[in-house]
Amino acid sequence: MFDRRNLFAALMLVGGLSLAGPASAFDLKPYDAKAFAAAQAAGKPILVDVTAPWCPVCKTQKTVFDKLASDPKFKDMVVYEVDFDSRKDVLRDLNVQKQSTLISYKGAKEVGRSSGETNANKIEDQLNKSL
Fold this sequence. Notes:
Elements: H1 4-20, E1 27-30, H2 33-41, E2 45-51, H3 56-69, E3 78-83, H4 88-94, E4 101-106, E5 109-115, H5 120-128
Parallel strand pairs: 1-3, 2-3
Antiparallel strand pairs: 2-4, 4-5
């Protein structure tokens, strides 16, 4: 029989698991200029995701990424996360003005950029340009 403490612990565990969502198949990495340049030189499909933990649009985009990550065509996609609040140097270098900005590259060439986009089809179209 559950007492309140055990019930609360069980609810926290279930709630935490549901927030975690599915594991992403994307090769997700914190932004690093050298690794980014190496991925560009290797001709990889790249997404730079400028995100903030407090941003509701960013959270919606993550849900879309989780769904797209299971698509085999994106198996080689490298995703670099840039924290909007702490990486102002990168924001300047990439000419980013706000969080929830997505920048797609096909190797060294920028092929798409959006800000505030949450439509799954439009995000998928942007990622397809990197392939």
